[in-house]
């Protein structure tokens, strides 16, 4: 739970662009994109 609080703290202090990027990453994870077998090296 501490990690979640830390993530929320970073999220609340991050600029809007970073928030959008994180949200899109979350949506991709939740939607389960077909290209999951590729290693995410970005």
Automatic annotation (TrEMBL):
InterPro entries: MntS. Pfam families: MntS. NCBIfam families: small_MntS. This is Manganase accumulation protein MntS. It comes from Citrobacter enshiensis. The gene is mntS.
């Amino acid at each position: 739970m501490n990690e979640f609080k830390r993530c929320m703290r970073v999220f609340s202090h991050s600029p809007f662009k970073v928030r959008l990027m994180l949200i899109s990453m979350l949506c991709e994870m939740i939607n389960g994109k077909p290209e999951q077998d590729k290693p995410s090296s970005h």
